[in-house]
Write a structure and sequence with these properties.
The complex is a heterodimer of chains A (279) and B (293). Helices cover 8% and strands 39% of the residues of chain A. Chain A is mainly β and 279 residues long. Chain B is mainly beta. Chain B is 8% helix and 41% strand. Chain B has two helices and 26 strands. The two termini of chain B are 34 Å apart. Classes of the chains: A mainly beta (279), B mainly beta (293).
C-alpha cells in the first residue's frame, strides 16, 4: 500500500551516499548514514497505515511491524531548541510535510518492515511512520528532518482528519459458502480506539462483533460467526464506532476528497447445507 | 404449503408456551414443547442465567433462527444461556423442505425464513423497500428464475408491487377447504384471550395482543385476502398475515414483529401469533360471528 509522496518515481537506490540530515533549530545537527542509524536502539511497533484516498470498495491499508529508530530519541540526541514547535520532513523526491513536534516525536524512522529491509516502493532506505494519522503525512525516501519554531496551523486536523473505518476481509464479495460463516475484518480510527464493530445481514438490525485488543496506532481486528437459516444471497455490511462515540454512516466524508468514509458491504451466496453437516 | 394437524399443534404449542397460556382444549395433545425454533427479533444478548443483571455470554444474530427450550416466566433457555421471551418469535419448525420455484402467477406466499427483504430490483444489495418477518404474507405477481436462486415480485392485496425478494425465503400457500361446522369466536378483552368454538365446543384458545380497545358486541366477520398491510402506525407493516375483518376499524390478524401476546401493544386491533392466526383464517368461513366481551 503506497500513499503520500507518489508524485515522482523512487529516487534512492543506493545507500553508500545516502544520509539523513537533522537540521534547523538544534544544538547538534546530525548527518547519519544508514549503518549509523541502525546502530541506534531498535524500535519496533505494529502500526497500521491508511491512505486518505481510501475507498470502501478498494481499501488502501496495511498493518505491519515497523522497525527503525525513534524520531524522538534522535531529536533528543540533536538537542532541539526549546522553542521548536514543528518538524519538517523532506523526502528525496521533493515531497515534504510539516508535523507538530509532539506528534513527530512519536514517529519511527523505519528502515525495515515485517523483518525485511524496506523495498524501494515502501520507501527504501527510510520512511517516517507515525501511529494514528494518514499515510500521506509519513513520507517515504526521507532524507532531511528540519526543526522550526514556526507552529503548525490547525494541528488538530492532522489527527482529526482520520475517518473511522471498517472493512470485511473474509469472506470476500460474492463468495459462495455453506453452513457456518465466519466473518472477519479490521477497523481503524487513527488515534482514537475502536469501541464497537457491528455487522448487519440483509439490512436486519446491527449485531456486535468480537474485538481483539489493539495497540495504539494499529487496526482492530474483529470477527463474528453466523449460521444462515435459509440459502440465498445476502448483503453484509459493517460499521465501527470509535472512542469519541462516532459511528460510521453512509454519508460522504466532510473532509475534502477523502473517500475513506462510507459503509463497506459485500454480498455472499449461501448454498444449501451439505448433507449430513449441521443438520 | 398446507399445515398438517401435527404441524399446527406443534407450532401452536410453541406459540401458547410463548404466551404462558396453557391450552385448555381436550383435543390438544400433550405436545412436545421441549424444543422449539424461533426467530430472534433483535440482536439478542444471551444471559448466563435468568435476569438482566446476569453476565452476557454471547449475542444471537437478529433475524436468525434459533432453537429454544424450557419456557419459564419471561425467559427461554437457548444454547449457552437464557434470552428474554418477548425477543423471540416462535417459528414453524417444519418449514425446512426443499425450495421450489413457482412459475404460475399470481399466488399468495408466506415467509418461511426468519425474515425476507424486499428490494427495489433483483440483487441482494439493491435498495431495501421493507423487511417482512416470519409468517408474513404477500401476493407473488411475477418471478425471475435464476441459478441458484430466483426472485419473486411481491405485491400487496391491491396488486401494488412492493419490490423483489429472494424466492428461497417464501413458500406458496395452499389453503384448507372450509367445513360446514357451526362456528363462533369469543374474544374476552379483560384477559386478552380468543376462543374459537365449533358446534358449541371450544377448539382453540389463544392469547392475543391488543392494539386497541374494541367496542363490545356481536360482529359479523369477513375473511380478507391472506396478506395485507397495516398503515396506521409507526412503523407500518407490510405482509400483515391472515386478516379477518370485524368492522372498518377492527381486524384480527397475525403479527410477526413481536412476541408479546396476552398484553396491549401498538398496531392492529387483535394480533395473534402467525400460526394461530393462520389456523383461525383457514378454519374461518365468511360470516362467522365474533363476540367481543
Amino acid at each position: 500500500m503506497h500513499c503520500g509522496n507518489t508524485r515522482n518515481r523512487p529516487v534512492v537506490s543506493r545507500t553508500d551516499t545516502w544520509k539523513l540530515d537533522i537540521t534547523g533549530r538544534v544544538a547538534h545537527p546530525l548527518s547519519l548514514s544508514l549503518p549509523s542509524l541502525k546502530s541506534f536502539p531498535k524500535f519496533e511497533a505494529p502500526i497500521a497505515i491508511f491512505c486518505k484516498r481510501n475507498s470502501v470498495r478498494l481499501p488502501r491499508m496495511r498493518q505491519a511491524v515497523w522497525t527503525g529508530v525513534s524520531l524522538g530519541s534522535l531529536l533528543t540526541q540533536a538537542q532541539i531548541d526549546s522553542e521548536v514547535l514543528s518538524v519538517r520532513a523532506i523526502a528525496a523526491d521533493g515531497y515534504e510535510t510539516v508535523l507538530p513536534l509532539d506528534l513527530a516525536q512519536e514517529g519511527i524512522l523505519a528502515y525495515a518492515v515485517d523483518g525485511e529491509d524496506l523495498s524501494l516502493n515502501e520507501g527504501f532506505p527510510l520512511r517516517l511512520v507515525i501511529p494514528g494519522i494518514y499515510s500521506h503525512r509519513m513520507p517515504r525516501w526521507i532524507r532531511k528532518i528540519e526543526l522550526s519554531q514556526l507552529p503548525v496551523i490547525d494541528t488538530s486536523s492532522i489527527v482529526d482528519e482520520v475517518q473511522t473505518t471498517s472493512h470485511i476481509v473474509a469472506p470476500h464479495h460474492m463468495q459462495s459458502l455453506q453452513n457456518d460463516v465466519r466473518f472477519s475484518g479490521v477497523a481503524y480510527a487513527g488515534r482514537r480506539s475502536i469501541t464497537r464493530v457491528e455487522l448487519s445481514i440483509d439490512d436486519a438490525d446491527w449485531m456486535p462483533a468480537s474485538l481483539a485488543r489493539a495497540p495504539r496506532g494499529s487496526w482492530t481486528e474483529w470477527e463474528i460467526n453466523w449460521r444462515p437459516s435459509v440459502p440465498g444471497d445476502y448483503a453484509v455490511k459493517v460499521r465501527a464506532t470509535d472512542s469519541d462515540g462516532c459511528t460510521q454512516t453512509d454519508l460522504p466524508s466532510p473532509t475534502g476528497n477523502s473517500l475513506s468514509s462510507g459503509i463497506h458491504s459485500i454480498v455472499i451466496r449461501v448454498l444449501p447445507p451439505l448433507e449430513g453437516v449441521n443438520s | 404449503m398446507k399445515y398438517s394437524r401435527r404441524t399446527f399443534l406443534k407450532w401452536v404449542g410453541a406459540s401458547l408456551a410463548a404466551t404462558s397460556l396453557r391450552p385448555m382444549l381436550a383435543f390438544l395433545p400433550a405436545f412436545d414443547i421441549s424444543l422449539h425454533r424461533g426467530r430472534a427479533l433483535t440482536a439478542l444478548p444471551v444471559y448466563q442465567y435468568r435476569g438482566q443483571d446476569a453476565p452476557i455470554v454471547s449475542h444471537i444474530w437478529p433475524d436468525s433462527a434459533i432453537e429454544f427450550s424450557e419456557s419459564r416466566g419471561e425467559w427461554y433457555q437457548v444454547a449457552g444461556g437464557f434470552v428474554q421471551r418477548d425477543s423471540i418469535q416462535p417459528m414453524n419448525p417444519d418449514q425446512n423442505g426443499e425450495h421450489r420455484f413457482e412459475t404460475q402467477y399470481p399466488f399468495w406466499a408466506e415467509v418461511i425464513g426468519p425474515a425476507a427483504s424486499v428490494r427495489s430490483y433483483c440483487a441482494a444489495n439493491a435498495p431495501l423497500a421493507t423487511r417482512i418477518g416470519h409468517g408474513g404474507v404477500m401476493q407473488v405477481v411475477d418471478g425471475l428464475p435464476g441459478e441458484p436462486y430466483g426472485w419473486y415480485a411481491v405485491a400487496d392485496a391491491g396488486g401494488y408491487i412492493l419490490g423483489w425478494t429472494q424466492a428461497t425465503q417464501w413458500q406458496k400457500i395452499v389453503m384448507e377447504p372450509d367445513s360446514d361446522a357451526e362456528r363462533l369466536i369469543i374474544v374476552e378483552q379483560p384477559t386478552h384471550t380468543l376462543t374459537a368454538y365449533e358446534n358449541g365446543k371450544p377448539i382453540l384458545k389463544a392469547a392475543y395482543a391488543a392494539g386497541m380497545e374494541i367496542a363490545g358486541g356481536l360482529y359479523p366477520s369477513e375473511r380478507l385476502s391472506p396478506g395485507g398491510g397495516y398503515w396506521n402506525g409507526d412503523p407500518n407493516y407490510h405482509g400483515l398475515p391472515w386478516r379477518i375483518r370485524l368492522s372498518e376499524k377492527y381486524e384480527i390478524s397475525g403479527a410477526y414483529w413481536h412476541n408479546r401476546f396476552g398484553q396491549g401493544v401498538p398496531g392492529p386491533a387483535l394480533q395473534l401469533p402467525v400460526a394461530v392466526a393462520r389456523w383461525l383464517y383457514e378454519w374461518h368461513s365468511s360470516g362467522v360471528p365474533v363476540v367481543i366481551k
